[in-house]
Write a structure and sequence with these properties.
It holds the Pfam family Usp. With about 150 residues, the protein is an alpha/beta fold. It has one domain: Rossmann fold, CATH 3.40.50. Helices cover about 40% and strands about 20% of the residues. A five-stranded parallel β-sheet has the order 5-2-1-6-7, with helices on both faces. The chain has a two-stranded antiparallel ribbon with strand order 3-4. α1 packs across α2 and α3 runs parallel beside α4. The N and C termini lie far apart (about 40 Å).
Amino acid sequence: MGDMSGIVVGIDGSGHSERALEWAVREAGLRQVPLTVIAVHQPVISHWGSAVSYPEDHAMTVRIRDAAREQTDKVIDRLGEGTPPQVNINAVSGSPAEELLVAGKRADLIVLGSRGAGGFARLVMGSVSYQVTHHAHCPVVVIPADDR
């Protein structure tokens, strides 16, 4: 993995997170710092309350990473010049807030959408952006939803 400094953006495949991704790509391009895209899906929670790992969890992670890579490539193509010098795509299974905070430990900036229509919205533990902004070691930019 190496050093994760640069900009970390959390996406969940929703329109809101697409805007966060665009902002993060542009910002990483301007600063000429690496961009790490984190796509999170939640593991299945058993009725005992613990996360259960199923074989299809891995397939899901691979699918999500591919989708995130495709979405990121599209954004980079669309923006054209001034792209980040390096782009890492990580798909993780777990709690979005936790994963973003871990990834953001050495980052210069964490970028999120204010709410996702996908996985992030269904979190029982409260809003991801709330948790991340309160616990991050670096500045956090929350891109507001485009509700026009």
